[in-house]
Amino acid sequence: MLIVLEGIDGCGKTTVIEGVRKHLADLGFDALATSEFGHQHPWAKRLRQELMDNVRDPIEQYRTVLKARDEHMNGVLIPAAGLQKIVLMDRYIMSTMAYQGQSEFTPVRQIMDDHANVFNFPVADLTIVLSCTVSTAIKRQQASGKAMDAIDSAGREFFSRASEIYISSANAIARQRPNKIRIVDAEQPLDDVLHEVINAVSGLIMTRDVA
Ligand SMILES: Nc1ncnc2c1ncn2[C@@H]1O[C@H](COP(=O)(O)OP(=O)(O)O)[C@@H](O)[C@H]1O
Ligand SMILES: Cc1cn([C@H]2C[C@H](O)[C@@H](COP(=O)(O)OP(=O)(O)O)O2)c(=O)[nH]c1=O
């Protein structure tokens, strides 16, 4: 089962995923937390660097994301699906739409069409978008001492537009397949955000056969 957390840098994805993973562990589920550029994967360091090197070449950036997506699908998602694991994934296709989709060379519509009709990546069972303002995301990153390379180099405008893409695409999915998407107000205190996310995840798990 594939559950994806989305949202701009600093909205709380990594923290929430860890909270959900612990909650599920207490219930006896061995969920896997992962991401396509995650430090635990042997290919990720090179591809993260490639993503940064190509910051001014959107077509190459998109190619790099697709390479990471392919490695991750074959190395992580397919084996986990074979074991009927719950996978908690930090970012997926909606991040590509929100970030790479801002370029006129790889517009959101093209990214959506490619993923629907050309590539064969697994479809998430549930995508949860953590929604907060860019100011909140910046404050949280500053408070955590986390490097803000992305926001520093791309600028606030980029992240405001990314937020808009997240919300408009989530609303579009909600109109067609409401049980595949949740928007959670990530301005709330962490416990409240976690509570909402855990409720959404639990609702899904009850309907499936998972390990
Ligand atoms: N709802 C929240 N309220 C306050 N602080 C939060 C909340 N969610 C996350 N944080 C804090 O914000 C910082 C960034 O969170 P993180 O999970 O690393 O974000 P992301 O993975 O989306 O970049 C961390 O220090 C985290 O503890
Ligand atoms: C999945 C994905 C990530 N990215 C970017 C967002 C992040 O800047 C970077 C790595 O993601 P992530 O691992 O979430 O960032 P962090 O370094 O904060 O842990 O990759 C894209 O630009 N497009 C994508 O499709």
TrEMBL record:
Gene Ontology annotations of biological process type: dTDP biosynthetic process; dTTP biosynthetic process; dUDP biosynthetic process
Top enzyme class of this protein?
Answer: transferase
Membrane spanning residue stretches: none
Q: Does the keyword Kinase apply?
A: yes
Catalyses: dTMP + ATP = dTDP + ADP
For this record, the Gene Ontology CC terms, alphabetical, are: cytosol
The record's section on PANTHER family has: THYMIDYLATE KINASE, UMP-CMP KINASE 2, MITOCHONDRIAL
Give the protein's recorded name. Thymidylate kinase
Annotated organism of origin? Pseudohongiella acticola
